[in-house]
Amino acid sequence: MKKALLALLAACGMAAVAPVQADTAWPAKPIRLVIPFPPGGGTDILSRLVANQLTQSAKWTVVPDNRPGAGGTIGIAEVVRAAPSGYELVMGQKDNLVVAPWLYKTVKYDPSKDLVAVTHVAYTPIMIVAPANSPFKNIADVVAAAKRAPGSIKYGSPGNGTTIHLAAEIFSQAAGIKLLHVPYKGSNAAMMDAIAGNVDLMVASVPSAMAQIKAGKLRALAVTSATRSTSLPDVPTLAESGYKQVDVSTWYGIFAPAKTPREVVDKLAAEVNKQLATPAMIQAIHEQGAEPKLMSQKQFADLVQSDYKKWKTIVQESGATVE
Length: 323
Hints:
Family: Belongs to the UPF0065 (bug) family.
Protein name: Tripartite tricarboxylate transporter substrate binding protein
Organism: Cupriavidus cauae
CATH class of the largest domain: Alpha Beta
Signal peptide: 1-22
Keywords: Signal
């Protein structure tokens, strides 16, 4: 009887320890990284850089999965609803996390309650570009033409309600001009139409447009951030062009569903930050036109919460809504 009791206790002990062992073994299977925009845009480029680095260097299997739609909110909502296991992540950014909830009437998530901000990856200026054969050589040319014929200049963006869209509207208000917005389903489609001359301008993140600028198919006119892009140091800011009130950039970071185990979040954050600090990743991110910046989890969570409150005011003052 005593031996049987000891065997039973040992079995119970093993069962109690098993879940802890399973947690510490994370990741024990492939991790899905949701990309809430189509292939070819800034979010897609940075997501794949991170996924490839984790797969190659950390020996984790990280699978990028594009889930575009509704300004990036469909992919975010999918991960909000996912099991908090650490195997469902999303590359979020200012667009779909802190701007979209104030623009889209159907968006119900709160980034500080429904998701865990794991780690900041990079930030990037937004830029205004024109086709290489455009008559617009600088922002002054655009403003002059728009004042001569209000509403005649068309600009493409990756979609309604994105930070990029709002950056263009903020610039338009600052310059006292009216531009015609043509929303697309992602940056790549907008870029192809800009190159073809079907729109006069495109507003995009630097990573989205970098390759076509280097190829000589697009001309960079200005960035909307307070400082110039490290990757394109010759491109002036809108502030330098006379519009100091325009200071808009966007950030990218990895998020997990709320209630994801703390030990999983900590392990993920530590590994991503370790990889982001390597010279190879710093160079790769710069080559794509983004700016790497390491943050602690608290710093990143505080940034998300601060921007969430800030953009509520910006959106309300702009009067913009998206059905």
